[in-house]
Amino acid sequence: MAGLCLAACSNQKSSEAGKPMGVAAATDLLLPQVPDSLTDPGARASFLALHFWDAMDWKDRSRSLDTAFMEQSFANYLTVLPLADSLGRVNGVDALLHGASADSSAYAFLVSVVDKYLGDPNSPMRDEELYIPFLRAFGASSLLDGAEKARYASLLEDAMKNRVGRKAANFTFMDREGRRMTLREAVAGTEETIVMFYDPNCNVCEATERYLASSEKLNRLIGEGRLRIVAIDPFDTDPGRWKAHADSLPRNWTVGRSPGGRIDSEEIYVIRATPAIYLLDSAMTVRIKDARDDEIARWAS
């Protein structure tokens, strides 16, 4: 979207941030024929998710270890998986990983592709809900060592926090006037709330702030009392530095900081990259977690 960077300020280095994804492969994976008897779109998607990789010979390393082929095939798979029902997704992921387990090198390479596409904060295809069944499987895989399994178990624990469809965790913050408030208080009385966790030292955060502040649509909704924007510094930022930045943000936003950086240090919200933006409804239910640029653009346009 215009004026907004397609990256994020991150606390961990992205292994291949900026590298194009879904590079065209020389030969596409042959896809299964969906039975005509399956007419329900969800059932058809679940069938395709389950059998998507049937034609794949995981012991053929000319394919299973080929970056272009595997990335393109996985990108194609990610156009199918979200359309399947919840059981279809789980079954599809299980079938994929069972097939890949035929060769430990192929399995390890697939794990890296999954991480890059679904887990990297800078991936345009990042999707935590799709990542969760993979994380569960990786944490229990006999093909990964103890340290790797522990890492995926930790990532799964993080992914389950403030999940879409669940209640957002409440927290206390200090606003620009030095008043102590809670997120629940900030959300009360409005239909929707955009919660943005930002870092005053993050250039991408500043670009996002300017983009949101310039939106006529968002300002109109705020004026009508239908929307609130709550911008929170979750880190233990120098108070003077925070205050200087906070004073530059729109007066119709609720702006605050986390005393002692508790939101980040206690992982009330897991923030791997800033800005981390959530959309909550009036009951504090998470509607969107870690919103992508295209989602933010839809709110603002």
Keywords:
301 residues, two-stranded antiparallel ribbon, 13 helices, disordered N terminus
What is the secondary structure topology, with strand pairs?
Layout: E1 9-10, H1 41-51, H2 61-64, H3 67-80, H4 86-100, H5 104-119, H6 128-139, H7 146-159, E2 172-175, E3 180-182, H8 183-187, E4 192-197, H9 203-213, H10 216-223, E5 227-233, H11 239-246, E6 254-257, H12 262-265, E7 273-274, E8 276-281, E9 286-288, H13 293-300
Helix pairs in contact: 1-4, 3-5, 4-6, 5-6, 6-7
Question: Can you walk me through this structure?
Answer:
Residues 1-6 and 12-26 have low confidence and may be disordered. The chain is an alpha+beta fold and 301 residues long. The strands form 2 sheets. The protein has a 7-stranded mixed β-sheet. A hairpin with a 4-residue loop joins strand 8 and strand 9 (286-288). The protein is 43% helix and 12% strand. The protein has helices spanning 41-51, 61-64, 67-80, 86-100, 104-119, 128-139, 146-159, 183-187, 203-213, 216-223, 239-246, 262-265, 293-300, and strands at residues 9-10, 172-175, 180-182, 192-197, 227-233, 254-257, 273-274, 276-281, 286-288. Helix 1 (41-51) packs parallel to helix 4, helix 3 (67-80) packs across helix 5 (104-119) and helix 4 (86-100) packs across helix 6. The protein has 13 helices and 9 strands.
